[in-house]
Specification:
about 325 residues, Dna Ligase, domain 1, five-stranded antiparallel beta sheet, four-stranded parallel beta sheet, about 30% helix, globular
């Protein structure tokens, strides 16, 4: 019986995969990497389906590495990428068709795999919607900020008036405001972080009629937490975002050096984070929490495919990459 292998689906510009691969190799595993931005151009794909089942393979042409479908024991679905084709001269309709057929080819295979997932694409999609996340968080016992998602200007104004403090805007899909979906020449903005709404902004609030927007009551912070769940393990990093004015509202200004440190969560908060991730059928999640000056824990969001390597680089004792390698190896063997 062949030893099961780990399939990593990402793109060629993914540092997380670059770091994980030698760890897996050192532990005796040989993962197969499928870079979406080189697929199907640099790969040969074959799948045959009949009454007796399915067989086939994916082969990386530059290296000759060949992965039999029946040998896939675990999948790490990491990052998206745009497909690449042998011909650079495809017409617009030809390319659109090629993309759709390639999407069906690849995900028709992946969705049908009976193996360990980190994490299954259907589970990831189901866990990606902020409105649903907040309702689930409350159901599991978390405190959340007062929130509104609306394209009704008066409702947003009334929400703001009812708050005791400030109101913040926070994009639900991405803080890049879809800048990563268009060319540089087509960009109108590179994005907007979580932003406190000023009186001047309130005068422009009629603009929310154009597209639903997400606003929350501003929560005073003692510090913030990035809680990463990998399998059954929970890793918590304390982020002292309040030490610099530039990161008080949104810690994701990585041009600013603020302290990160390992922290032990109260047992009930750790279990709640684990339960939240597992409730979606996920084996990975990166949760953002606030800890208030009164020591209350407030849920902000879960990132089902969130980054974690930058946290481990800042807090090396949080050995998340090693835990991920162990999860994938163990999962592939089950």
């Amino acid at each position: 019986m062949n030893r099961k292998r780990i399939l990593i689906v990402s793109n060629s510009d993914d540092l997380h995969v670059d770091v994980l691969t030698p760890l897996l190799t050192a532990k005796g595993d040989t993962p197969f990497r499928l870079d979406l931005d080189a697929f199907p151009r640099d790969y040969q794909f074959h799948q045959q389906i009949g009454q007796q089942g399915c067989e086939g393979f994916i082969q990386h042409l530059p290296t000759g590495d060949r992965l039999a479908i029946e040998d896939i024991g675990a999948v790490w679905l990491r990052k998206k990428g745009e497909f690449a084709f042998l011909s650079a001269d495809l017409g617009l309709q030809e390319k659109a068709y090629a993309i759709e057929e390639t999407d069906h080819t690849l995900f028709g295979l992946l969705y049908g795999l009976d193996c360990y997932w980190m994490s299954h694409p259907l589970a990831v999609r189901g866990a990606s919607f902020k409105g649903e996340q907040m309702k689930r968080a409350v159901r599991l016992g978390f405190t959340i900020p007062p929130s509104i998602i609306s394209n009704t200007p008066q409702a947003v104004k009334s929400f703001k008036q009812a708050l005791e403090g400030d109101m913040v805007f926070k994009a639900m899909s991405s803080s890049f405001l879809a800048a990563d979906k268009v060319s540089q020449a087509e960009r109108e903005s590179d994005g907007i972080p979580t932003t406190v709404i000023s009186d001047e902004d309130m005068e422009q609030m009629d603009a929310v009629a154009l597209v639903p927007c997400h606003f929350q009551g501003h929560i005073e912070k003692a510090y913030e937490l990035r809680v990463t769940v990998i399998g059954e393990r929970v890793f918590a990093a304390k982020i002292d975002s309040q030490l610099d004015e530039r990161t008080k509202t949104d810690f994701r200004d990585f041009s600013v050096e603020i302290p990160y440190s390992a922290i032990e969560l109260p047992q009930h908060i750790e279990q709640r984070c684990r339960e939240f991730v597992k409730s979606y059928g996920l084996n990975y999640g990166a949760l953002d929490l606030i800890v208030t000056p009164e020591d209350d824990y407030v849920f902000l969001e879960n990132n089902p495919g969130g980054q974690f390597w930058f946290v481990e680089q800042l807090v090396p004792e949080l050995t998340m990459m090693d835990a991920l390698a162990d999860c994938l190896i163990e999962g592939a063997r089950c």
